[in-house]
Write a structure and sequence with these properties.
It comes from Cyamophila willieti. It catalyses: a ubiquinone + NADH + 5 H(+)(in) = a ubiquinol + NAD(+) + 4 H(+)(out). The protein is an all-alpha fold. The protein is built from six helices and no strands. Helix 4 packs antiparallel against helix 6.
Amino acid sequence: MLLIMTFVLTILITLSMILFIIPILNIHKKLDREKSSPFECGFDPFSKPRISFSIHFFSVSLMFLIFDIEITLVLPTPILLKEINIVSWMISCTFLFSMLILGLILEWKQGSMNWL
């Protein structure tokens, strides 16, 4: 019992020392205005908040999300090939890839991927 009490007391003392030392070591970070400001992609944090952002940034992030979701749908297929019908898998993957390729061609034709 005494060993457990000593162990708990040692842990409490160590934790309290850490809680008092960390704010002292981080004083220089509180003084830096730029590091304490929130970071938002595509925006200058010290300018007017209602400026418009680049549509190219939005379209690239949207394309990334679409292809990221596509990867999560296709990635487990080697494991599932043992359990599902190969014909239905081929039809669904062909439909998925054709929709993605058609969307990519449409974005290319509209010029959303041009940065000039």
